[in-house]
Fold these 4 entries.
Entry 1:
Amino acid sequence: MQEEKRQRRKPLVFYGWLIVAMAGIRGSFGVGTYFASSVLFLPMQEELGWSRTTFFGIITMRQLGAGILAPLVGAWGDHPWLPRLILPVSTLFLGASFISAKWVQTPAQLYLIHGILGTIGVALAGNAIIDAIVAKWFIRKRAKALMWANVGPGSGALVFPVVITAMLAVFGWRDTWFWLGVGTILILFPLSLIARTRPEEMGLLPDGVDALDVAAGRGPTPASEVSLTRHEALRTMAFWLLVGSLALGMLGVQGYQVHWIPYLREQDFSPAASATAVFLYGVFTVVARFVWGYLSGRYQARFVLSIQAVTAGAGIVLFMFVPNTPMLMVWGVYQGLTLAAFFQLHALIAANYFGRAHVGAIRGAMFPIAVSFNSVSPLLLGYMRDAFGSYTLAFGLLVVTWGISAALVFMAKPPHKASQPASV
């Protein structure tokens, strides 16, 4: 009896939820500092006289670097102890990239110091490794865990622009960069130290179940989820359908977002109305994490992801034909609910389809193509706007790509191995 009580004594909080909190806060900084850079680049441009392309080339550089390194970094995320080293190191590089911006005087310095350090910092803690670590700690509660982990990126878009704007008014852009870097290190470095790749390394089981729960059939076990290696995943049709869906979806996320304000100004919406609509989008991206997280926990992930892609494309159609300010606010709410959960759902379906053991390496193999589409999107849409004199064809292209993305993921049935359960 005493032995049974001892085995049943559980910690108040399953360590996996600490991993989720760490991932969420890192995600908030990842997205938030992207928006912070947009805020800080404008006063830098006014003082230094450099072109806008010079500044935003840094963002493209970081994205491409993260995509190129994703196969390597993702595989490191499957290693028993490397994440405990990689995540603190990435924090130091990212923080140093912000701190160093205080002293830049030439574009070369911006790229060589701020750009390269930042690229390493972003690449070493990208989605390929963070989502993989979260997925390894959960099986039955994986959808809920990824939902909470992705609340962080949504909140970063809301919090950081406001905070950085306030700091900019007080300190100026040079010292704001400096204190942003210091804050990044002080907050993320201690959090990074808690990273653990799998619950088994701490004598735990996924979802926080114990041995008696497993014996009584009340919880999953590592053996209940058969994992594919990266080589095996690359040989499945599901992998390539998911890569296509991810790449086409990413074409319609960042590039679409950066053209919102220019398009709305062309349509004679006021700056205040445009900013309010984008703010509503940000608020409802946080709400969307819970909506889609709930749905993906109840229904097959590929069906939920297909619906998300279709509704995201419908939001672009609504955006193209918004007639007045009240409907613009409706669009902001609707687009927030339908667009932002795309990455959360893709992380879930990859873990569900290919298992826990090598999900970092598998997700990492997906990103080079997808990130290339994401990086080219702002330039492609801008070129189409200039070539045809309006955004109609550019946004129409995104509607089509979202439709194809939905079809591809709908066709991506779970891969099977001889010992794998028939459904995921």
Entry 2:
Amino acid sequence: MYFNIFHTANVVFYVLLGISAVLMLQKVVHHIIAMFPGKKFADAKKDYKYAILIPARNESAVIDNLLKSIQEQDYNSELLETYVVVESDDDPTCEIVKRYPRTNIFVRKHLELKGKGHALDEVVQDIFVSGKKYDAYFIFDADNVLTPSFITEMNKCYDAGYQMANGYRNSKNWNSGWVAFASAFTMSMINTCNNKARAKCNGCMTVSGTGFYIASEVLEKVGGYKFFELTEDVELSLYCTVNNIKSTYNEYAIYFDEHPVTFKQAWTQRVRWVRGHWSAHNKYRKQLFAGLVKDKQHKLSKYEYFIDIFPIALLLGSSIAYCLFMFILAIIGSANGEPIAYKVWRAFTSEALSIYFFFVLYAAYMVILERRKKINLTFWRAVWGCLTFPAFMATYIPLAIYAVLKRKVEWTPIVHNVNIDTKK
């Protein structure tokens, strides 16, 4: 009886492992493509006019760094106009904004509508009413900092006919601890191991929060910035996919972002991500399936968004469930003197170590890829980050359960205070 249970558990586990491996073939291809240089864009034939939108509630500690980097762009400054969105005239951010030309302060009126999506929609609506015209809207968070060529690189994408594009999201604080390391790698997984391959295969991009533009014609069609989920970037990505909006990724358009340092900050941020991701995908799942069946464009992208995280969830879920089951079975077998109990212990140990070292090696693979970008990561921080990365990823399991079961999840601002000089 004991042997039959052990044998059946192994069969079920390896069947699930095989299914997840097949479903993840596309991801494997993406990771192979990630090893090579990203898609390059031809020099633009024209310089276009852009609005830059920055939600900046109580961001006086970092907003100066971003505005300075916008002024230092090697792009025609007369074609850039910035809108900094605040919630009150008393916000210290306002005094900093006044120092910069072509930079406007927009004070929100509808504070009952919380979240980044509502803040962006309010300023876009105001621009529509004013009659001002822009070719596209760039969206940044207040803690971002742009490299001098960022707008020039993104202008190449717009000139090539892309209605949406996002740049390469580097980190300001790679060396601020294992949480900051792992959080930064989350963005790297989205861009380097997904968007780079999608761009080279003409697929649809996933916007990673900030550092992107969206064409005016898209916002005019929907009547503003009508993406209000907790993760409005995911909702925008899904909208663009189901509506066949042409998007791309430019890894040579580099900007920097600050990541959480404490586990508590990262937990709060990721709870919002998980809940928003789940909600946005539920909203568009039927449209994705319909487009997958009927549309001729972007079928592979629609398939990828439709199955979403199921392949990796199946792989990790079955692996962790197998470990837990073997652990319990091994204890029972040892207590009852079962002759093959040692095999069960061996199965548990080998699988637990396999999961751990898979994530360590995956993190090491990412470090090797990202060092090409000359990320500011010291050797020993990289080693420690790789060794602790599995622990960070493991917390997604209780976090996901908490995010789904929590009655109400709200957008909560993260405190930012890191400033850098991108020229250095």
Entry 3:
Amino acid sequence: MWQFDKNVASSFDSHARQHIPNYDTVIDKSLDVCELYGKSAKIIDVGCAIGETLIRLHNRGFTNLHGVDNSQSMLDKCPHSIASLTCSETLPEGLYDVIIINWTLHFIKDKKKYLQNVFDKLNPNGVVIISDKTSLDPLAIGMYHDYKRAKGVSEEEIKQKQESIKNVMFIDDIEYYFSILKFTGFSKVHIIDSYWCFTTFVCIKR
């Protein structure tokens, strides 16, 4: 079973680029959205892992940064000097201008309840950025595995990863996300990036 333990944390930067399509591009697009809210915007990165997004936000001059992850092993690799970090399954108390949830929500089974909590902790006119795995279609999976092969992932590792995430990842399709996000109360939902099996949404609260 897949776990974000010390072994994963020690090689997460290279692992992410091998297994997550458009990893750096999606982070850069997320930062561009954050720019719309100013350098003092209160931003939280949910599932912040080892802090790649937080580091890039800090390097761009953002000053009110927060990170939350349920793996202490991942948080131990984060630079504590640039952000307030919390080890938790839920968001810390407070309201935020931007909530980033990249490659995290597909590990949560009850997305409806979780997204309602996210919506409630977002300031008016705030934004949520969500990147998730959104397809198990055989064609899409095949193309996604080709991406991994091109990044140097072996056939054995592809097979092992596929087995390890069973009953750990809860995949819902794009139509589900549009439906649940509108039901939760977001007035606008945009797709700003997509690749085989993966989609990035920007959701605005009015």
Entry 4:
Amino acid sequence: MMDNKTHSNKEIFEYHYFSPRKNLNIRYGRTAPCLKESASAVCLLLHGRSEFIEKYKGVARHLQEKGFQVVSPDWRGQGLSSRELENRHKGHINRFDDYVDDLEALYLRVIEPQGLPVYILAHSMGGHIALRFMSRQLSKIKKAVLVSPMIDITLPVMLYPVLKLLSKKLSKTPFARKYTIGSRDYSVKAAKFKGNNLCHDPKKYRILHHEIAKNPDLALGGVTWGWLNAALESVEILKQDDIIGRITTPILMISAQKDSIVSSKAQEQLSGKLSNCSFLSIKGAFHELLFEETGITHQVWDAFNRFVVE
């Protein structure tokens, strides 16, 4: 495995790369403990689809102030990790197990050797991958907070079975690498705060787009048929009783009441099946709970604080 480092004094993160296998470079950010004190624990900060480390600088500072060292990866195909296709705007993956494999490699290489308690704070797709990871790495995580986790994708009820079947068939053809209907390359012109379904805070909404303006290589567009099939197959894996039974980590699942990206119903159903999971729904919140208006983010962090220090 390769390990290179770049560093900027203006950044909360030091940026590193490692190679789980040939021709695959995964970027991750790692913070120093606040006030140069030794960190008492590590927080694995896992973001969602189309996101990247830079978007989460504010979240990382918040965790750093709580005494955590923060480690946060760019998923393969996102951020400045290796992209899967020649058109780097296409969100593509062959199977979600690849994400889990990369997270395991990061954990074993970077986090476990420190010998510190490890917590997870994960958003959306990151929450899904975290659950899959915890079903493999038993008892490795002390506690996990999953905000708006992608337990299932919100699709029109009538179209869901059609898209599921179509994506399965197309994933076995060259169309696996083609955009799904309605997906396209990233364009800042399409990023309109008014009428968005991600968050209510205009300043936080623009963080991602400001970072992309500084480094266009961070941009990611829509998803391919291959990605959609991989996601729906992984959704089915998380429904399996043997997988659910292996997840014993104490979990706080925080749901956004007005989430139109992932299914809050599926979140609540899974939380009831997990052996050690609490469920909280935030009234009036959109999908991006960590980037919502102040009244909502205060509720999220209050719940995080109560859960982590219990």
